[in-house]
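Intended use. Records like the one below are meant for learning the mapping from a protein sequence to its folded structure. Do not use them to infer anything beyond what is encoded.
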Amino acid sequence: MKKKFRIKKPDEIKELLEAGNVRRNAYFSVYKGAGKKGHFRYAISVPQKFGKAVRRNKVKRQIRMIIKDLDIHENIDLFVIVHARSAKLRFEELERELVKLVKKHRIKLNNREVRR
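Structure written out for the chain above:
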């Protein structure tokens, strides 16, 4: 995904956190907010508890790929916090759990099938 789809400013992330529209499970917390740029944007946070930088960067790449495959066209902002428990999951399990949370937010997904 292009960098224009990423939320980088701490103030914008803080605004999403304060809005309080969140769905959680054991592996992720997904915050949703109204989009201000006219297109979908997202941010990902992986805590240091998750592991060393190599593992954190790997899971960020995987989450970015999952979000890209979701093909979201709504004008919303998403902030995904990855919990340390998800370190034990394989890619398919990560994808399944994240898609469940996105669906709980009632976000329309285009042509979405979860890999098995």
